[in-house]
Structure formats: C-alpha cells, structure tokens
Amino acid sequence: MATDAYRQAGVDRGAAGSAKDRIFNLARSTFTPGVLGDIGAFGALYKVTGYRDPVLVAHTDGVGTKLRVASLMGRYDTVGEDIVHHCTNDILTCGAQPLFFLDYMGMGALSTDKVEQLVEGLARACRGLDCALIGGETAEMPGMYHGEDVELVGFVVGAVESEGVIDGSSIRAGDALLALPSSGLHTNGYSLVRRVFGIDDNPAVLDAHHDELGATLGAALLVPHRSYVAALTPALDRIKGMAHITGGGFPENVPRMLPERLSARLEPETWTVPPLFRLIQRTGGISEDEMRRVFNMGVGMIVAVAPEDVAGVRAGVPEAFVVGEVADAAGRPQVTFS
Amino acid sequence: MATDAYRQAGVDRGAAGSAKDRIFNLARSTFTPGVLGDIGAFGALYKVTGYRDPVLVAHTDGVGTKLRVASLMGRYDTVGEDIVHHCTNDILTCGAQPLFFLDYMGMGALSTDKVEQLVEGLARACRGLDCALIGGETAEMPGMYHGEDVELVGFVVGAVESEGVIDGSSIRAGDALLALPSSGLHTNGYSLVRRVFGIDDNPAVLDAHHDELGATLGAALLVPHRSYVAALTPALDRIKGMAHITGGGFPENVPRMLPERLSARLEPETWTVPPLFRLIQRTGGISEDEMRRVFNMGVGMIVAVAPEDVAGVRAGVPEAFVVGEVADAAGRPQVTFS
Question: ipTM value of the model?
C-alpha cells in the first residue's frame, strides 16, 4: 500500500473531484439572490431578505428505502425530487417558504453518474421552488453501503413572517379538515412494499405491468413525492394547521397539528383510495387500519380551516376537498375514521 | 401479513415512538432563547436575534466510516460529538457562530439504546456551543444498513455579521499561516485505517494496547473531533481565512481559503506528527504525501493572518503556532511542503 492507499481502500478522491464540478454547476442553476459566494466553501452563505420579522423553519428527512427501488431500477433523479418536496412540504406546514437546501449522499463507491442524476433531481425541484441548493456532502463509505445502494438526506431552511407562523393552536372543534391528493406513495411505506412484493429477492417484479396502475409496478412506485407549496401558498393566511401525511400515516401525523383535547374525524368515503394502495393491500393481505398507519392512502396533506373559510380556500385550491372535521376528545390529540 | 405488517417488514413504529420521547428530552436540554415552539413539529422554528445584519452560514457533513469503529466498539456517544464539532468548525471558517443543529440517523433496526447514545453526544456538544438541537430524523431502513451499522449526518446553521464574513479574499503573499492542533484523526481517513489494520475482518485489533498511543487502538481512533469555536472566536476579527483540515487533507482543504495565484507553504518541521498517524503510516507502508492527502497529521485548522497580527492572535490563542506562510504562485491555489 505504498501509494494510492486511499484509492485501494475504496475512497477515490479523484472521482470525488470530477463529480464535484458537475454537481457545482447543477447547484448554481438553482441560485437565488439570497445566495452569497459560491458553492464549495466550507460553509454556504445566505442572506434572508424581503421579510420584516422572519422566523426560520428547518427540517431534515431522508427518502427511506424508496432509494432501494430507485437503485434496482437504475434511476436516481426522481428521488432527488422526492427529498426536496418532502422537506419543503414539511416546513410549509408551519407556513414557511423554502430559502435554501443542502443534501447528503452516501454510497459505497462513488459513481459520478449516480451523483449527477441525484443532483439533477434535487436541482430541478429546487428551481421549481425558488429554493437555492447551496451545499451538500457526498460521502464514499466502502463497506457501509452495499451494491448500488445510495443514501440521500435533505435539509431545508425556510422562512415565515412571525405573525404568519401556522402551529395549529387556533384549531377548534367544528373546524373543517380539507385534504389534498398525493401523487403516489410519496416517500413512505417502501420497506413494507419491498416485502409484500418480494422486490429484494426478485427485482423483476418491478417490470411487471399492472393494468390497474396503467404502468409497471416500478414506475408507479417511483412517482415523485409532489410539492404542495404552489398549491397551498395562496391559502396560507386562512389555514390554521397542516399535517403532512408521511411516515406513520394518519395516526402519527394528523394529531401533530392538533391542540390537546381535540380529535380529527376523517370520513374515508370522501375520497377514492388510488389503485396502487389497493394493489399493495390485496397482495400483502394488510388490514385497512395498518394501511392507514403506513401509507398516505391518496391523501398527502390535511389542512384545518374555520368552517366559514372552506369556500374561500377551495376557490383558491380547487383540488382540496372536505375530508372530515375537528371534534372534541378526551386527552391527547387523535384521529378517528368514521 | 394480516396485522403488524410493517413491524414484520422491519420497521417498528412503536420503538420509534419510545426513542422519540428520550431524544426529545435530550434535545430540549440544548434549547437556547432563539428556539420557538417544541421539538417534534413538522418544522423546527428558530428566531435569529442579536445580529444587526446577519448572514446565515449552513453546512452538512457526515461522520464517515468512523461510525464503523464506533459500532464495533459498541459506543455511539462520541460520534455525536464528532459531527457537531465537524459541522460547527466548518461554518466557523466563515466567521459564523452556530445557532441550531439537526441530525439524521439511519440504521437497519431501530435501537433505542443506540439512538439515545448518539443523541447524548449530539446534545452534549451542542450545549457546549450554545447551539440548539432543534430537529432530526431517525430512519429505520432494513436491508439498507447492516448489522450494528449506523449512519449519522449533521446539519448546522450559524450566523455572522455581514461585515464579519471571513472568505479569504484579503489574503496576500507574505501573510502568516497559523496552525491549531487536532485531537486525533477527527472524522477523516477511517476507510484507510480500517483497511490498514484489517479492522473489519478482525475487530479485536481495536482492543490491542499500543504503548506509543498510551491507549488501545480503538480508544485512540474514537477520540472526538475537537471544537475550535471557543479557541478561535476571540481572534476572528484578525483572521483573514481559515481552512478546516478534513476529507482530502491539506491539498484539498488549504487551497479552499486562498485567492487565485497564491499558495500555502507549510513547514512540516514546525510540528510533531502525533504517534497515531505514524503508527498508521508504518503499519500501512503509506507515503508521507498520501498521509497528507488523507489525514490531518495533527493539524486540524489553519488560519491566515497578516504578519503584524501574529503576536496578537497568538496572545489570544496560545495553542496556535506559525506553520508557514502565503506565497505567490502561478495558477490555481495550492499547498506545498518545504
């Protein structure tokens, strides 16, 4: 191990440099006026402007094992979109608009093609949100990540005027709950899906066309997590609380927006669960209750509004539909299905 | 798979809930006045105060395969310190003080003990820096992470007054370069170290005592990445540029602070390389050049100051020593060893 010991140990710093140039140009395509300096410094500089009394809102999340589906299909750009939309939807629930984003990618052996695909997706989603991709880290970790596996983690910082923070505290019994459709599984439930279809043992199941999906299973599973920023921003001043239906499904996410002693009563007959969820349920023999604990079931965001604001919100957000209401309850916030 | 399908698929949401309670209390122990609201919301709220014209500085990084050493030794708190210090040192190079931190942890099967140890380390380091641990994500990814492996990623946001941003642009030929000692390998070079000592195949080598280290190999390798925030903050107004010696060693990190047409001339005889680096070098038969491309060699931070400020900076930062100087060069910034 006289020379090039680090390369032999599985970390190729030359490849790291080449990938960096391509990443940097993609990242620069997202820059907004708030970005100071260039990408590649030890720290990424950003100046918040245009707010009178800004509160910062930060969030981090991962894509989960949807990444395994992406690596089995050899397609990495859509998961880049996934993580940007996942994170920015989360801070939107506080009323915040995204300012900047950073990513972390881990893989066993650096692949410039994979990195570029991942960053293409990140940059595409960031440009769509006026959110600057100002930094990131690509870690080559031989022995830790296996085969084609990649890890992808996102961090977002956004801002909201202090008087515009949405925290659910004004939610009252009798408020209406509006739902917005999801675009697919978003980024949750993939460990269960992998098991139900035996994807790890037989990746060919991803290529099977399903008439009820109008697509292959793999294509349906990779549909990107949609963004709710453009759809909901015009209505933020009338929204009292928002729940992004992610890991833990309805029972873990809807109560997060509710004050104590309130429950969310959802009426399942108000929407049609998309075929992909029913295919998973049928194939795995999974109870409806479990499905709702794991998946979004076609509803990606639930917002609480005063009854008198329902018509106004729906006029600005035509895809929103009444999915239930807030009711009194004993004890901790909860969700029930009527 | 009628009930509890998600648990059978390897994702235990009940364990996730229990770990959450313990994490939340540790995180709350770091809260500073800037934190609004509580941990556990979809977004973490923070209000920047005490700055006249703040610039935000953000950074993300991972611990790399030091995590493998930690998992082989069954000790996870020190890597929590590592990532906080790594990230906050990085934004310090821009002159920024840390405001808040978020973490991402990935593992194959959720272990509340591991999570708690990790967050204990994160919280301890954050408290020491008045940096609030305001959010994070714990991802259970069966099939992606193996055995006791964990992934740990950090994300920090700090602030600096706009006129106090350190970007190296005022560095000139003739400026002095001061070095600050590292506390060990910090968080870089562990893939090479694992290979040199055959750690993955024979973890027992970690338990071997080495007289020259005064410790076992494992203990020496796990020494946390130190913080430079307290040491260097008093001198920031006299520092023109800073380089944190992380992945890529001296050749990749020192040039990052330099303007074009300048080089850093370092004099290796100004410091003694600590025994751990020499043990690695001797065991692996690694060239001095390669060592400097991978490891910090006992120097964790290099700062550039005007010659007339050397005495003043050293008075406030007694551990700093002159390690070389800035010189003219053709083309891109570089580092040379005399």
Answer: 0.94
Q: Report d(CA A68, CA B67) in Å as an integer.
A: 22
All residues of chain B having their beta carbon less than 8 Å from the beta carbon of residue A60 are 102-104, 135-137, 153, 155
DSSP A200-222: TT-GGGGG-EETTTTEEHHHHHH
Segments in chain A forming alpha helices (H) = 5-8, 13-28, 66-73, 77-92, 112-128, 190-197, 217-222, 229-232, 249-253, 275-284, 288-294, 310-316
Distances (CA, A) of B96 to B12, B89, B232: 39, 9, 11
Of A229, A337, A260, nearest to B43 by C-alpha is: A229
Q: Are A152 and A121 in contact (CB under 8 A)?
A: no
Residue A145 per-residue DSSP state: B
Q: Measuring CA to CA, which residue among B113, B294, B296, B114 is closest to residue A9?
A: B294
Q: Is the four-CA dihedral B190, B195, B198, B200 of positive or negative sign?
A: positive
CB–CB contact A42 B91 (8 Å): yes
DSSP state of B332: S
Is A59 in Cβ contact with B144 (below 8 Å)?
A: no
Which of A37, A47, A192 is the closest to B9 by Cβ?
Answer: A192
End-to-end Cα distance, chain B: 67
Q: What is the pTM of this model?
A: 0.95
Mind listing the pLDDT tens digit of every residue in chain B (338 residues)?
Answer: 334 676 777 777 666 667 778 888 999 999 999 999 887 778 899 999 999 999 999 999 999 999 999 999 999 999 999 999 999 999 999 999 999 999 999 999 989 899 999 999 999 999 999 999 999 999 999 889 999 999 999 999 999 999 999 999 999 999 999 999 999 999 999 999 999 999 999 999 999 999 999 999 999 999 999 999 999 999 999 999 999 999 999 999 999 999 999 999 999 999 999 999 999 999 999 999 999 999 999 999 999 999 999 999 999 999 999 999 999 998 888 999 98
Q: Side chain identity at B90, as an amino acid letter?
A: D
Torsional class of A235: left (φ above 0), alpha (ψ -120 to 50), beta (otherwise): alpha
Contacts of residue A248 in chain B, CB cutoff 8 Å?
13, 16
Residue B278 has φ and ψ, to the nearest 5°, of -70, -35
- Reduce the DSSP state of residue B22 to 3 states and report it: helix
Q: B103: how many CB neighbours lie within 10 A of its CB?
A: 28
CB distance A41–B167 less than 8 Å? Answer: yes
User: In whole angstroms, what is the distance from residue B122 CA to residue B128 CA?
Assistant: 10
